[in-house]
Amino acid sequence: MSTDEAAVALGRSFHQALVARDWDGIRALLQDDATWTLPGDNTISGTADGADAVVERAKQIASYGVDFKLLHLLVSRDNVALSLHNTARREDAVLDEHLATVCRLRDGKIASIETYLSDVPGMNAFFV
Asked: Considering the entire predicted model, what is its pTM?
C-alpha cells in the first residue's frame, strides 16, 4: 500500500470509528502521545494531551449528538485531513459548521490532530 493509500485508509478509519462511537477503534489509531487541538472558548476547546484524552474529547463531542458528514479525505506527502460538515441541534442551539481535521501521522498512526473551523462563534455557542 502506498503512503497516500495508507493515509487515506487511516483517515477513513478515524471517521468510521467516530461515527460508530467506537472509542477503542479510535484509540488504536493513535500514538500514545497524540494531541487534539480545537479553537474557540468552550467545553471542547484547547488541546487534549495523550491518546486517552483525545478519545475523551471525541466522546465529549459525540455526546452532543453531532453528525459527522465526511465530504473529502485530503492527503499531503505525509499526512491526511478530513473535510467534514458537522451538524447538530439542541432546543436552544444549532451547530452547522464546515471543518478540516488535519491529522499528522507518525509510524502509521495519528500523532496529532488540529481542527480548523468555519464558524468558531457558532461552535462556542453550541458547546457550552
From this structure: 0.94
